[in-house]
Amino acid sequence: MGKATFLFVGVGKGGVGKTTTAVSLAGSLARRGYRVLLIDGDRSMNAGASLAVTNPAPESYIDLLHAHLHRTRPPFPIQNAVSKTAFPGLDLLCGTAKRGADHITLWSRVEWGLGETGQFPLFGKLLAPLMSAYDFMVYDAPPNVEGAINIGALICADYVVSPIEADYYCLSGTRDLRQNIDGITSRFRPRPPEQFIFLVKYAKARTLHSAIAEGLKSDPQWGKRFLDAPIGNRSRELMDALYERAPLCYASRPGQSAAEYEALTDELLRRIGG
Ligand SMILES: Nc1ncnc2c1ncn2[C@@H]1O[C@H](COP(=O)(O)OP(=O)(O)O)[C@@H](O)[C@H]1O
Ligand SMILES: [Mg+2]
Fold first, then answer.
1. What separation in Å is there between the alpha carbon of 36 and the centre of ligand 2?
2. Does the pLDDT at position 171 exceed 80?
3. Threshold 0.90, pTM exceeds
4. How far apart are CA 261 and CA 254, in angstroms?
5. Considering only CA atoms, which of 136, 153, 134 is closest in space to residue 144?
6. CB of 113 closer than 8 Å to CB of 120
7. Section 148-161 average pLDDT
8. How far is the CA of 46 from the centre of ligand 2 (A)?
9. Domain 5-272, CATH
10. Which of 238, 242, 244, 257 to mutate to test the pocket of ligand 1 (most atoms within 8 A of CB)?
11. pLDDT tens for residues 15-50?
12. Domain range list for the chain
């Protein structure tokens, strides 16, 4: 069995559609028969909350990192942090087994401990036993790109997948992320992960949006990284799927955004040779 392809879904900005993209991509890949692990990389734990879970994990990977760093308890198998979801082939690696203030403190201590001791690759080392059990790992990143767990995930990443809105802040955030990816990963690996960008909350009829899309497509730096499969502005359909705790392709009434995320999954698979 091969090693999972690690997709890091992040962009260095909040509220763009990272979690929506991570959950939708993970669902679409699983529906195509791939074995997928969705990793909750944000302490808000929105990715986990977006999915119906059938067998909740008794532990979390944050607990495991904490056990390694602070030795307050013996480390346990990473498999204990894997929840089964209601969707065949789609598992969830939990950042928490229990929500609450204690968990936030624990997460901060882990981030601090990893940073203080410079053990950024520990996250990837702990994931290693799961690598052959999955075809894809999909990591849902937090808004900030500098967190220690995030750096650990970037070290493992085969590809960075960045949803971007057609606005100035998002474009400059994407440039910053690119520099961070190069800067961070050059300390730990010979080459940085390849990055793909695509537009979300996109309205073709808006002149500004289509001008930005055309600009990105023909840009010498971004053109080769641009996935020409935009996602429209469709908050209602997304909220319905979220309410059902289902990835878009499993929603009871899949609509336009489900079809758009299918097209994005096709385009991504085509580009990475999947
Ligand atoms: N394509 C879209 N069209 C409209 N609303 C969207 C779209 N993608 C995400 N949203 C909404 O934007 C908000 C933030 O999305 P989310 O995926 O949680 O972003 P992030 O993880 O980047 O913070 C959510 O309310 C979500 O439903
Ligand atoms: Mg999010």
1. 18
2. no
3. yes
4. 11
5. 153
6. no
7. 95
8. 6
9. 3.40.50.300
10. 238
11. 999 999 999 999 999 999 999 999 999 988 899 999
12. 5-272
